[in-house]
Design brief:
There is one protein chain. With 256 residues, the protein is α/β, with parallel strands linked by helices. It has a single domain, classed as Rossmann fold. 42% of the residues lie in helices and 14% in strands. It has eight helices and six strands; from the N terminus they run ααβααβααβαββαβ. Helix 8 links the parallel strand 5 and strand 6. Helix 3 packs across helix 4 and helix 4 packs across helix 6. The longest helix has 37 residues. The protein is globular, with a radius of gyration of 23 Å. The mean pLDDT is 88. Bound molecules: zinc ion.
Length: 256
């Protein structure tokens, strides 16, 4: 008799758990519909309401971002040529062309100056998917270009790290942020000419505990490739580690 009671009690418990789960799910659906009504999720580019699977940018706007397709020829392209005769890089892969007053500029501005980390993660995921499609994934570490700690404290995050995290969600390559660091804080590169940009970032990066990266393949991550000065300075610091292979990935390639 006790056995029968305990069995039916278990069945009752099981049924109530299912009901509770359904109830919670329905509540969550209502809550997200309500939040959507008050805080609608809109595309950062065209302001259209986003679908469930879209994050910060709608699919049509994303398809319109001008891809460089350098992922198909990562060793010899317009961007890799910036470094020829200066430093030995394995692959140079800017994902999109960055043009003034176009969508990507607005998205990267959101990431860098308006605290919108979600768009950085999403652009990182897109970059990760592009690498995956081309089967370009044999990297041992992702290393985001570091910010000086003063800038980090001011902004609260490193935009290159956010992009690296997005890539990591698609390709499970470990992120290493302990080895490369910025020795000096520098003024923004935005209003400097080509020569001033090179001088501004010369020898500002260094590496610590570098033995763990010996012989490894590194993918260095940054938001934008402009003259290549910052990237080259990072790559030079990393190239002091014996037998490292260094590749570069940026979301944007600024027009020259
Ligand atoms: Zn849109």
């Amino acid at each position: 008799m006790i056995k029968i009671y305990s069995q039916s009690f278990r069945t009752y418990l099981k049924a109530s758990t299912i009901n509770m789960t359904q109830l919670l799910r329905t509540f969550k659906q209502y809550l997200s519909a309500f939040l959507e009504l008050i805080f609608p999720r809109l595309c950062l580019v065209c302001n259209r309401h986003l679908l469930k699977n879209e994050i910060e940018i709608c699919n049509p706007c994303c398809h319109k971002l001008p891809k460089t397709n350098f992922v198909k020829n990562p060793k010899d392209n317009l961007a890799s040529q910036l470094f020829w005769g200066r430093i030995n890089l394995e692959n140079v892969i800017p994902i999109y062309y960055l043009k003034k007053e176009e969508a990507l500029q607005e998205l990267l501005y959101e990431l860098k100056y308006r605290g919108n980390k979600e768009i950085g993660l999403e652009l990182g995921r897109k970059a990760g998917q592009i690498l995956k499609q081309e089967d370009l994934r044999s990297f041992d570490f992702l290393i985001p270009v570091p910010l000086h700690y003063k800038k980090f404290l001011k902004r609260g995050y490193n935009q290159s790290m956010v992009i690296a995290k997005g890539i990591h969600e698609i390709l499970p390559i470990p992120i290493n942020e302990g080895i490369l660091y910025r020795k000096h804080n520098t003024k923004t590169q935005t209003h400097k000419n080509r020569y001033e940009r090179w001088k501004n970032v010369e020898e500002i990066f260094d590496v610590r505990n570098n033995f763990s990266l010996a012989g490894k393949s590194i993918l260095l991550i940054d938001d934008v490739l402009t003259t290549g000065a910052t990237i080259e300075s990072c790559a030079k610091a990393l190239s002091t580690i014996p037998e490292t292979k260094i590749s570069i990935l940026t979301i944007g390639l600024a027009s020259h």
